[in-house]
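#structure-requests
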Amino acid sequence: MKKIVLAVIAVITLIACKEEVNSDANVHITGDVKGLSKGKLYVQRIQDSTLIILDSILINGDSKFESHINLESPEMLYLFLDRGQTNSIDNNLPFFAEPGNIKVETTLQHFFADAKITGSENHDLWKKFDSINSKFRDQNLALMAKRLKNELKPNPVTTDSIEQAYQKLLKRKYRYTAHFAVMNGNKEIAPYLALSEIADINTIYLDTIQKSMTPDVAKSKYGKMLSEYVKERKEIEVQK
């Protein structure tokens, strides 16, 4: 009898704890990884340059999943699929989470490529940005290939040509990113892009992005980080 009572108390306590955790959650993630019958999913964030786990989800028979977490402000998170194999880009799915209901639909075969994420305005903007940014990445890879080929039989004229093309590409990418951030200063994607894509751009551009942020965005995680970063950059420049 005593064992039964203890077991009931344990179950009640577990349920109470679970409800307490869920009651604090402001981000509700539901999803489906078609083809996944067994494995683990991890919701992760970057903290101090390291990925840490916010939630772990055990998949056993049902490919659908749920996760309930709490975020102080919109933030780039990562849904990691543990395949039990060597990590690859197709195991990690970045998504810009924000308070509310977010839906993730993808497949086991093409976890990254097939992903469709809805419910986050910041993520919609990030996908829009990345569709153009991917073209810059492709052009950069093409220039890298030319650079490697030229290193086998160095040609000063070709070297200069490649370097000029690279600098032009870099300026286009930086200007596009800065413009995109300024135009979306009412969303947390703005300071995120400034920090993750063009952190080494001229301080004038970073200052412009910072000033374009709305008060709410300025108080967000990335907004505070950008403000602090711009302040540090200005202090360093004054000392030079």
